[in-house]
């Protein structure tokens, strides 16, 4: 028997099948956001205290909590806009406050206030998403194609040459999501994105988020509308300085976290009977 035959025989597992490279365990993807024992306060009193959570690629996570619960502060810690007083915050595998790869993160603020009052067109807003890739230079034909694709994805092609000041609240939010898509972001962060948006536009907005998440974009939503969260998000983080709940949405609805964080009438706010 040749040495080659001997090697081939020893490569067979005891169950009779041949071991291959495919049998090697595939390492789990690193969390996009990873907080460990994070505490932060603007004064001596913590606004966020001892928060630990991880958000994996492809998740659709909503952070909820009453006014003043620390939701927006937590989002800023996640994005490295604030540095924890204690604990660690990591974004795409690096310390969040040192993260500088802006093209990976798309951010949509409440009211999409940036450029809200500026006399620029929707296409010009979406064009800004390419700046993380090309700086402030001229966009190439390929860059403009990405801009046009982003506009089409969010259903705003017909409004491309309309000024942002002429849009409804829902249309403006779509334009800013298109900007994030033009930047080819892996993580889409939205801070109270439906405040002031009419009910019909809210439904269409959440349908769009679901479609983007289905395409692999990780969605992190800071939201006051409990009913929307219960209907659309896959995972809920309920915060009131501390994390009261972190898990699947259906389990959140059945937990006591709603009442503990929001008060006795919270189940009706979430559209849940009983």
Q: What is shown here, in short?
A:
Pfam families: ABC_tran (PF00005). Keywords: ATP-binding, Nucleotide-binding, Transport. The chain has 274 residues and is of the alpha/beta class.
Give me some keywords for this one.
274 residues, alpha/beta, four-stranded antiparallel beta sheet, Rossmann fold, 20% strand, globular
Explain how this protein is built:
The chain is an alpha/beta fold and 274 residues long. The chain has one domain (33-262): Rossmann fold, CATH 3.40.50.300. It has eleven helices and ten strands. The strands form two sheets. A six-stranded mixed sheet has the order 6-7-8-3-9-10, sandwiched between helices. β9 (235-240) and β10 (242-248) form a beta hairpin. Mean pLDDT is 83; it is low at 1-24.
Derived structural class: alpha/beta
As for the CATH topology, it is Rossmann fold
Summed over residues and divided by their number, the pLDDT gives a mean of 83
Order of H and E elements:
HEEEHEEEHHHHEHEHEEHHH
Q: Quaternary status of these chains? A: single chain
Shape type: globular
Task: Give the strand tally.
Answer: 10
Beta strand %? 15-25%
Note the topology.
Blueprint: H1 3-10, E1 33-40, E2 48-55, E3 60-64, H2 71-78, E4 86-91, E5 94-95, E6 105-108, H3 122-127, H4 131-134, H5 141-153, H6 169-182, E7 187-191, H7 199-214, E8 218-222, H8 226-232, E9 235-240, E10 242-248, H9 249-254, H10 257-262, H11 266-269
Helix pairs in contact: 5-6
């Amino acid at each position: 028997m040749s040495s080659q035959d001997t090697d081939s025989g020893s490569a067979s597992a005891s169950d009779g099948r041949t071991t291959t490279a495919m049998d090697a365990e595939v390492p789990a993807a690193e969390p996009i956001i990873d907080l460990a024992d994070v505490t932060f306060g603007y004064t001596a009193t913590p606004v966020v205290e001892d928060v630990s959570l991880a958000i994996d690629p492809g998740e659709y996570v909503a952070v909820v909590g009453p006014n003043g619960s620390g939701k927006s502060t937590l989002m800023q810690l996640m994005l490295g806009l604030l540095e924890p007083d204690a604990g660690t915050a990591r974004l795409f595998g690096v310390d969040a406050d040192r993260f500088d790869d802006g093209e990976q993160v798309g951010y949509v603020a409440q009211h999409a206030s940036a450029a809200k009052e500026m006399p620029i067109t929707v296409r010009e807003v979406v064009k800004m998403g390419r700046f993380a890739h090309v700086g402030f230079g001229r966009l190439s034909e390929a860059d403009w194609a990405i801009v046009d694709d982003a506009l089409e994805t969010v259903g705003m092609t017909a409004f491309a040459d309309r000024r942002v000041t002429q849009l409804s609240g829902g249309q403006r939010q779509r334009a800013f999501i298109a900007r994030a898509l033009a930047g080819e972001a892996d993580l889409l962060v939205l801070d109270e994105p439906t405040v002031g948006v009419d009910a019909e536009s809210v439904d269409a907005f959440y349908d769009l988020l679901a479609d983007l998440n289905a395409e692999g974009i990780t969605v992190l939503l800071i939201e006051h509308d409990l009913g929307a969260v219960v209907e659309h998000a896959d995972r809920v983080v309920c915060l009131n300085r501390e994390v009261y709940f972190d898990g699947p949405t259906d389990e959140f609805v059945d937990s006591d976290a709603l009442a503990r964080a929001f008060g006795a009438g919270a189940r009706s706010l979430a559209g849940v009977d009983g």
